[in-house]
## 1
Amino acid sequence: MADLTTRPVADQEWDDLVRQLHNQPKTGVRPFFYARVQARLAANAAAQSHALPGWLRRPAYAALLGALVMTLSGDGAARRPAAAARCQDCPGARPQPR
Amino acid sequence: MAYSLPLPLAHAPPARAQLNDAATDADLVTQLQAGSEAAFRTLVVRYQDRVHRTVLALLRSPEEAEDVAQEVFVEVYQTIGRFRGDATLSTWLYRLATSRALKNRRMARAKKRFAQFTSLFGFDNRVLHEAPDHAHPQALLEGQQQLRHFLAHIARLPGQQQVAFTLRHEQDLSYEEIAAVLDTTVPAVESLLFRARQTLRKHLQPHLHHG
């Protein structure tokens, strides 16, 4: 029974709340919003122009990366003399100069 | 679309903005896809308040709303080339605005949880402040406690329900329009709104009785 008496009041208050929500003052953006969007676009464009990661733009890191790539992608020629020195008796090993 | 248009001066003469004021949204999209800066300006001016209000209704923070609204228009500029007209321009904008606002909200909550976590272990010696209560100015000025409670509970609704409720009761969108924004059906929107109202009424019942 309590519900029967309170429910209509609650309904009315609910409707009032929804109305208040709907009737809130319609705020707009602050002036010069378009200019700020433009500035953001310009900043994004500038950021995109630095597409390389920061560490790659440093010469020392770039050189290190280059050396690493050369080492890993080589055919092992750099290591061959050392291998030959360890295996002088192997067939095909070049005689050491006297 | 890659950023290819030359950026005009920020304070270009207003006459340029008037060029397309009467253009339909479809015309605007066509002109924008062709690289018209005037069309972009017209689009921003036409929709800035609607986008801002929608985001503000979801975030309740004017600063965050401004930031997200800017992001929405930057995204429009950068992706207008992919807009195929499957939805109307306004639907697309509402979709971008609501999804970005919800993403922003998720990130803010994650940040807050992380701050609480680190404060538990003493990683951060700063005092942990609660997020400021960005109650609506009207509620603050007139002391409308009920409206403040109402807004607080709306903010706690699950994302889709909050979007549906906000678009319906603050932005006056029809069920069909909300369904288009959420990329769902009208019955699904009805269900979202029903659950949102049910949750809100349940939480507000003590305030409604004794407020």
## 2
Amino acid sequence: MNYVFHLLTMINIYTILALSLNLLVGYTGLLSLSHAAFYGIGAYISTLFMMNIGLPFLPSLFLAILGSVLLSLIISIPSLSLKGDYFVLASLGFQIIVFTILYNWIDVTRGPYGISGIPRPNILGIQVESIASYFIFSGVLAAICAGLLYLIGDSPFGRVLKAIREDEISAAALGKNIPRFKVIAFAIASGFAAVSGVLFAGYLQYIDPTSFTLMESVFILSIIIIGGTGNLSGPILGTILMIILPEILRFLRIPDTIAPNVREIIYGILIILIMRFQPQGLSGEYKFE
Amino acid sequence: MSILELDNVTKTFDGVRAVDRTTLGFDKGKITSLIGPNGAGKTTVFNLISGFLHPDEGVISYQDRPISGLAPWDIAQMGIGRLFQDVRLFNQMTVKDNVLTAFKKQRGESALMSVIARWKVAKEEQLLSSRAMKLLDFVGLAEKEEELAENLSYGQQKLLSIARLLGADADLFLLDEPTAGINPQMVKVFLDVIRRLTEEGKTVIVIEHNMNVVIEISDWVYFMDEGQVVSFGLPNEVLGDPEVRAAYVGL
């Protein structure tokens, strides 16, 4: 049963990542390759505050979100007033820089050795200890995040983001301050990615930089390309599929030595097929063109 | 009285002067047409006015305030609306959402307000929604409200772009070839809309290649060639100018 709760917990964590990236890719039309960096920033900030200062879970979560939002401004303010391609490059650069810092700043992050013994969350005296209770806890947080992202997306704010995605020039001619909307959308997405990171660190009770690589950013992007973007159902469906898929492969008894490679090949084939035959993903609203 | 003025404005691209020391003035409540051959600098003038380009020299002022150097969204917020030649709709959004996006100063355009003051945003949205439906009704697209903009015919897309522009509640309209590519019946609808705007005191500047349209609606006409104003006056005066007639063979 713990195996099922583990999978469901991972689905909860990745649902937040996928839905927040969806705000950038599906709503605003911004391709970001730095989502795993903000995921990692959230995980490390909360872990460091909890373990070094003994700060409780909730303030650590808050500081992780705040830190992630502030760091997002470093790349968004200079790059988002430029054309889309520059933003992709800036996000790629940021992802690599964050990984390099996490890997090499050993005094603080313990680098490749990682940080173990991360405490499980304690919410107002309630200890979230078992895998089952962590599933419920992460489910509640994922539901809150999904609700907030729904409210944000399904609003005039979300409508402007979609207008920017469709035609920036036209949206600007209607008086919409394009860089401002993009910076805010990026900050929101980064803040939610940090929530996933905090949940991940508390769940595994161990983090190291290899969980927050460029490949992880690409994986989150694959989730929403396959599931679909521009609404809630696409990213959620994509998350369920992409988390469950490796488990299905496990039942096919593919040898462990080649299983990761087979998985990557299947992801690649899926993305190609989706882009060719279903450009809006399995359940998305926005067609990539 | 001019509501918008370009004073000695120059814009150069790779050494070519697209707009060359041009001075233009546009009267409030009037329809002024910009005519001239392709490459005369007309669309560049629109890009300069709406802030998508900034002049290398000269000053653009709107309501006696300099606007050259401002961002396009700041200029739009000041009341200058623009209809693009190539329509530029939000294709993967519904017809109604295209119009709703145009409305200014929406409370729900703040991400925070859309979460913490949801009911107020919903209330405002209801009002805006009925305004959007009136505009869609006006251009005859009310029953297409839930259709994606990309599924409309070209003529309908043009009409939607007009509805969206009206939603932006501008005081000065820049219309880049509004009648291009649409049937004569729709041209009439467009001209009615344009006339109605000036009856409401709005100012309209039109780039137009259809000389019948120019004669029918214009109060004033500028003829531009190679980035400079060659002729200015009443429609019949300008179109009677031999140089202008040479530019438009068959007139």
